[in-house]
């Protein structure tokens, strides 16, 4: 065998040994979790929920992946236009530096001006309101908020979104005894809540007469009638409608709309955003109300 053939043979043997070795590349690669669009939507939904519950006047919310690339941006109506770009910058900075942006802003405010030129070499928006998103101890992305009532509220809204992904949502198995259900129907003027979670609520409800017109911006209502009959108007326009709580509007009646007669055994589903009104009730009227929370 000549010299050339000898070198080729040795090369083939060496290549075979590398390929056949199961550990040859094991230390050279790693598997990482990846933030999905569904996950980004879940984080934004949690942030929006916190913003509404705490009367934030606005807010742009941005979610980026572990490389700082934008996955999702949403902006509350009325938020100043530049809030979108700032929220993206905060989210990217939290990922690139693997820490909340408040700490970076505090460092600069304490006199470390040497950090300011960092913006020339990488994404850098050192303003409070950026939080890394961590799943099982691994940073999979970041969330940034800009345009709320203060820098502190920006951060609080971002934290609410990040926390929504820290651990998978779990729900406990709930049971209410017949005695508890009976007592709930008898409480107050209209009954009481039986089960409540971030994703849904179940109430034992009763009505003795007509009620106010209602619109829920976040909740979907599902009625299951046990006893009595009622006529419900759905759709149309609420008369004299006024906000009574975040994402809730009530009024005296409904103009237009369609009627639905419901009785024992019937199920009526009213998606969020649709006005509805118990126009008349034949008492005693008892029903279960399941409220499904949007985005949960």
pLDDT below 50 for ≥5 consecutive residues: which ranges? 1-24
| Average residue-wise pLDDT | 86
Task: Provide the structure class.
Answer: alpha+beta
Please tell me what the overall shape is: elongated
Structure description:
It is a single chain. This protein is α+β, with helices and mostly antiparallel strands and 296 residues long. It folds into two domains: 37-163, Beta-Lactamase (2-Layer Sandwich); 178-293, Jelly Rolls, CATH 2.60.120.10. Helices cover 27% and strands 34% of the residues. It has six helices and 15 strands. The strands form four sheets. Strands 5, 6, 8, 13, 14 and 15 form a six-stranded antiparallel beta sheet that branches. It has a four-stranded antiparallel beta sheet with strand order 2-1-4-3. A hairpin with a 3-residue loop joins β5 (191-196) and β6 (200-207). The protein is elongated and about 75 Å long. The protein starts with a helix and ends with a strand. Mean pLDDT is 86; it is low at 1-24.
């Amino acid at each position: 065998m000549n010299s050339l053939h000898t070198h080729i043979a040795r090369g083939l043997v060496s290549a075979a040994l590398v390929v056949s070795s199961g550990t040859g590349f094991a230390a050279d690669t790693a598997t990482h979790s990846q933030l999905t669009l569904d996950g980004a939507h879940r984080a934004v939904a949690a942030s929006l929920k916190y913003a509404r519950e705490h009367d934030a006047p606005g807010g742009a919310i941005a979610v980026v992946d572990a490389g700082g690339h934008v996955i999702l941006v949403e902006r509350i109506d009325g938020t100043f236009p530049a809030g979108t770009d700032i929220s993206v910058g905060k989210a990217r900075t939290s990922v690139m530096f693997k820490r909340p942006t408040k700490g970076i802003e505090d460092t600069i405010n304490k006199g470390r001006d040497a950090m300011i030129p960092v913006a020339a070499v990488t994404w850098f928006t050192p303003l409070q309101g950026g939080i890394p998103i961590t799943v099982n101890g691994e940073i999979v992305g970041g969330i940034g908020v800009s345009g709320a009532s203060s820098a502190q509220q920006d951060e609080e809204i971002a934290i609410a979104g990040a926390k929504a992904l820290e651990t998978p949502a779990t729900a406990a198995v709930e049971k209410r005894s017949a005695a508890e259900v009976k007592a709930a129907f008898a409480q107050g003027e209209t009954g009481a809540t039986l089960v409540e979670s971030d994703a849904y609520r179940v109430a034992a409800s009763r009505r003795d007469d007509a009620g106010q017109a209602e619109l829920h911006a976040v909740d979907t209502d599902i009625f299951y009638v046990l006893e009595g009959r009622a006529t419900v108007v759905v759709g149309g326009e609420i008369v004299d409608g006024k906000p009574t709580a975040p994402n809730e509007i009530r009024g005296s009646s409904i103009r237009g709309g369609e009627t639905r007669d419901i009785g024992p055994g019937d199920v009526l589903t009213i998606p969020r955003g649709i006005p509805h009104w118990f126009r008349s009730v034949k008492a005693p009227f008892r029903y279960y109300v399941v409220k499904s929370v949007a985005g949960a």
